[in-house]
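Bug #77: duplicate submission created two jobs. Keeping one. Sequence:
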Amino acid sequence: MPMPLRIRHSLLFNLGTVMTAITLLAFTSMAVSLFIADTMEGEATAINESGALRMRSYRIASSLIYDAVDIKEQWQNTYALVEEFERHLHSPELITVLPADKQQPLRRAYDRIEFQWREEIRPLLDIYLDGILGFLPETGQGQNFSISKDAVTNLRAQYFANVSGFVNNIDYLVSLLEEDAETNVRHLRIYQFFALLLTVLLALTGLILVNQRIRLPLQQLLVGAERARQRDFSFRTKYTGKDELGQLGLAFNSMAEDLSHIYNELEDRVQQKTFDLERSNCSLELLYNTVRRLNLASSPHEAYPELLQDIEQLADMHCGAICLSNQDSETAAMLASTLDREICIKQLCEKEGCSRCLHSDDIQHLKLDNNRNIISIPIRDKNQQYGVLLMAPHTGKTIEAWQIQLLETIAGHIGITLNSLQQAAENQRLELMEERSIIARELHDSLAQSLTFMKIQVSRLQAELKKPENKSTTENIITELRLGLNSAYRELRELLTTFRLKIEGESFNEALYKTVEEFNERSDTYIHCDNQLPYFNLTPNEEIHLLQLIREALSNVIHHANAKTAQVLLQYNQQGEIQIHIKDDGIGIDERRPQSHHYGLTIMNERSKSMHGRLSIENRASGGTLVKLVFSPSNPIKPVNLHHE
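Kept job's structure:
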């Protein structure tokens, strides 16, 4: 069964296989070496044992040759040598190294020695030892197994005849043992050589594997990472195998490709955002210049040419013009343009006239007969159209949405300015009409009534002149006429002063204190003024009416009150209304006396009504008069601390 691809090509699996093979080879080599070393150690012992057999064979022979004086000692020595030979022949050290297979040369050599010993050598030695034992005094008498000396000599000769071949067989066994030991050593060397060679091959394979599939891929990945850190995503690793680092290389290449696209896209977006910000900055600058020029110019018509030049430069236009018209008109007047008027008419206007531009409430994209594209943006404010803003882009370019929005905003500002001018003119007309109405009313309430009174007195005088006897009555009428003329003259001067009253370049507070100072200089009455109202709290219309009302009240004080001191107090009450107190310590008002000539009081009432206020005139308990006006200002400001009388 084939190994799965992802395991077969796994770098860790391949490295693990090499390391496992090297480890197993090392353990196997050590195990075989230990086994062969142990085997060789047993063979060395066996060689020693087999060599000892050869030596002991000769010792037995020398014992047989030797005729000892003490026969018993000779027998004991020979018997000990025979038993020792027997023990060494069957020693476990020698038996262990023999193969189990009896057909093996080593086994056959040993079996031949053992057979020769058992069947030939040992029986001779036993007979020899038994024969010697018969020569012993304590054992020889009465024994049947004693032999002659000739027989002993014969046994010796027979042993000597067999021992040479026996020793040769022992030598052959020793040589086989030595050869087997040398074979084991040779096998160990061969195995160690091949184990070392295989280990070197496996190590080289591992090194090649590490170099080709680890070092080089990692080196390329590190180079790619360093290039990526420097925001250079053009590098691609060449190692894209099926192992882990190959898959990592593929992932790195894919990541670098994605990052390259992302950074390119981000750079494009940054450039686009930068361009948009620059364009927005230009748009804001253009709008700021538009508002500044329209507000600072003494006449908006003077700002239109510079405004069109700003639009042409900052909005990237070829040319432009501003055309204004009345609602009921079919034509428009070109107030300003960036080119010469005649050239601009040829560039921007249709032959059919202005109706197509003026009769549309929406933005129009027009294509003229000269194949030039223009945009017509209505100049309007509060559902009233004042004209159009015409702009033409450069040849081959189209007007973008941001340009349309910018031009529409500029047209809106122009419309607001025109509407403000129209509203200001309308307010001036209304104020002029209102002021004329006030003048007519005040003339009617003062001079007209005085003249009517004097006309009546003249009629009375004419009637009395026809009666010479009524000289005293005539003089009274003349006196009243003189008083009426003086009163009319005084009223005329006060009206002229009132009509000339204006507040320019100074605050209401300064104008108020100048008025009080003027009345202080004109009379012996000391007038104190206390203005507790904050600045910029009154409208210009309220300031004029309030100042005229205070002048009228102070005029009444110095002409009719006979007061030593007077006070003008302006403050807020608890309801957030403005209250004005004008009080004196004079004679007060005779409420029972008809006020036929008190035209100033009538004027004061008219002014308080125009301010939607409440006017009251009453005597003070401590003496004198209190004129009190309470009204709600157009710009109410409720103070933190209120002052009370």
